[in-house]
Amino acid sequence: MGAARETSRPSPYSGLGTWVDVYDWSREFSGGRPVVGPADVDAMAAAGVQTLFIQTAKGEDAGDLVDPDLLITIVDRARARGLRVVGWYAPTLVDEAADLRRLLAAASLGVDGVAVDIEVRDVGDVTLRNQRLISLSRGLRRALPGQRLGAVVMPPVLLDVVNPGYWPGFPWRELARSYDVWLPMSYSTERRRDSGWRDGYRYTVENVRRLREHLGRPHAPVHTISGLADRLTRADLEGTVRAVVETGAVGASLYDWRSTGAVAWPFLSPLRAP
Are 23 and 29 a contacting pair, CB within 8 Å? Predict the structure, then answer.
């Protein structure tokens, strides 16, 4: 068992991406008034976005896909505009079978990749949580041997330095063979200035370095996520670009689309993959 074999297809995790969650695109989680829709896909394409990361399910929802008709419309629009699409879901790990079912439903949309957002701590017993996460990840890899799987992970600086009690003993090595690409949530805006980690460049570089060290894979493919978008400065944006180049990350994105101002996109254009 191992990561998907490389093919001639461009990786959906390379280049410049953007993120949309169910609170913005779905009727169900927006009170019937989504603020992001199919027309936004055209704006993404115009801004130079190459990959749309879209949340496809939510733990509180009974279905395996949220608003499937609208979701399919957005995905189809993105594909028609030349964007790659990665469907993502945050497993609760309370019901492993339900989590796997939702991730497989995301893959059934014909997306270019499936990403597992690993941050929910509904299972309080850390040992049990880790066991279920490892089991889910391996089960997903077995079920989707040819799919490009991404692991969206908490930033190692947070887990190692800022708050080691947040998720003790995170099973980096045990997960390493289940995923093709690693996507650390390097949200420097969530760090205090006096912590030394508010600098977007430093935070991104150190998260990538620690991530690869924990995995035991010095050249592990990384797509770094910066944010939160509406709080990032010009220096943060320029620092993100520099960090991506220096670490050899395969791509980068901001969280999220709705909060990314038009002024930010020109600074991010160097991140576009050929």
Answer: yes
Identify the bridge partners of residue 51 per DSSP, sorted by sequence position. 17, 84
Cα–Cα distances in angstroms (integers) from residue 263 to residues 19, 81, 113, 126, 227, in the given order? 17, 22, 28, 42, 15
What local confidence, expressed as pLDDT, does residue 3 receive?
A: 61
Fold observed for domain 15-271: TIM Barrel (3.20.20)
Instruction: Tell me the average pLDDT across 77-98.
Output: 98
pLDDT level of residue 2 (50, 70, 90 thresholds)? low
Cis-peptide into 228, omega within 30 deg: yes
Q: What is the pLDDT of residue 5?
A: 43
Question: Strands 15-20 and 251-255, how do they pair?
Answer: parallel
Residue type, 223: H
Nearest to 78, CA basis, from 103, 35, 114, 110: 110
Give SS3 for 131. helix
Structure tokens at 209: 């370095």
What's the predicted TM-score (pTM) here? 0.95
Q: What is the C-alpha R_g of the chain?
A: 17
DSSP calls for 142-209? HH-TTS-EEEEE--HHIIIII-TTSSTT--HHHHGGG-SEEEEEE-GGGS-GGGT---HHHHHHHHHH
Residue 1 CB neighbour total at 10 angstroms: 8
Q: What tens digit of pLDDT does each residue of 57-86 get?
A: 999 888 999 999 999 999 999 999 999 999
Kindly state the average pLDDT of the residues 209-231.
97
- Tokens at 149, concatenated: 């799987």
Quick one: 141 exposed, middle or buried, by C-beta within 10 A (0-12, 13-18, 19+)?
A: buried
Say what the pLDDT of residue 6 is. Answer: 43
Pick from 184, 176, 120: nearest CA to 152: 184
